[in-house]
Each structure stands twice: as structure tokens, then as C-alpha cells.
Amino acid sequence: MRMKDLHWEAGDFGRFVVQGKGARGSGPRQREAFLFAEGRELLWWYVEEVRGLFSDDPEHPESPVWPSERLARGLGGMPNPVGPAVTTSTLRKALARASEAHLAGPVGRIFPHLLRHACATHRYEAGMSLWEVQKLLGHDWTTTTVRYILSAQSDPEMASRRSSARAAQRLRVDTGGLS
Fold first, then answer.
1. Strand order in the sheet with 29-34
2. How many CB atoms lie within 10 A of CB 94?
């Protein structure tokens, strides 16, 4: 993700663009994701207080949000305004080390895609409907979204039943009764 992919002004808390994988072999595609209050606050702190400590120019729109600690060098050894981004393998290794050091309980290891699952689960548990979570994740099929919701407190099947019961109740009220 590049600095130009952060859109602080969009939506209630901002949005960002990420490069995601495409469905059914369609290849990579860009996806817009939403910031939430807590995430926006943390990301804002990082950009304002930490990002500028790296050797490249954090104001450059092509600069990565999460740069590598390796020095950005251009032609002739001159500093490059755009530094290299942290690689996927570096992120995976860092998450694995952090998992081993700090996690106890049912989740023993964190990997990048698990964070997407966690976001879906937390949004669903916070009251976001299954359809809203589906749209948030960019899924075409609700069944894909249901697989993402790994919740100890909520059961997507029961939520679907409750939702259907509420819809049937509204129909009864709107039409004066179904029977």
C-alpha cells in the first residue's frame, strides 16, 4: 500500500486501497477497504509519528505506507525519494514471531489473511449484518463471507434465522398478516 492509497477524508473514518487477490483465478485486483475509528487513530499516529523516521520521503505519493528498514538508494548511490516496501514474507515472519511471543489461547499463530477474518468477525459481532460484512469484504457470495466469520459469541446460521423471522414479521405487519 502506498501513501497515495490512504484516503483520510472518505467515509466516516477514511478508506484505503489494497491489492487483493481476485476470485476464481481472475488475478490480483484493487479493493477499497474502510478504516474504523480505532484503526484510523492508530494509523494516523503511525503516519504522523513513526513513518517519517525512515530514510525515504513519506510525503511522496508513491512511498509505501510500511517501508523496509533497508535504505532507499537510487542511481549512483544517491538517496531515492521512494523506499522499498516491506515484503510479504517479512510481514509473515514478523507476525509469526509476535504470535509466538505474545499469543496464548485458541489462536496460536497470526498470518496476514487471518487479520481479514478477524475484521469480519469483529464487525459481525458488533452488529453489522451479514450482507454488510459481505460488501465490506468484497465477496460475491454470502457463503464465502460465512466462512470468514469465526465467532465464539455468534452463530451465522442462527443470525440468518433471526433475520428471516424479523423479515417475516415485517411482512405480517405490512400486509396485515400472511395467514
1. 6-7, 15-20, 29-34
2. 12
Residues contacting 120, CB < 8 A, separation 6+: 133, 136, 137, 145, 148, 149
N- to C-terminal Cα distance for the chain?
A: 55
Q: Which one, of 42, 97, 89, lies nearest residue 68 by Cα?
A: 89
Contacts 24+ apart (CB under 8 A), 14-17: 14/40
**pLDDT average per 10 residues of sequence, the chain (179 residues):** 88 80 70 79 90 85 86 61 82 87 79 83 86 86 85 64 76 62
Q: What is the pTM of this model?
A: 0.61
Let me know: does 65 contact 3? Beta carbons within 8 Å: yes
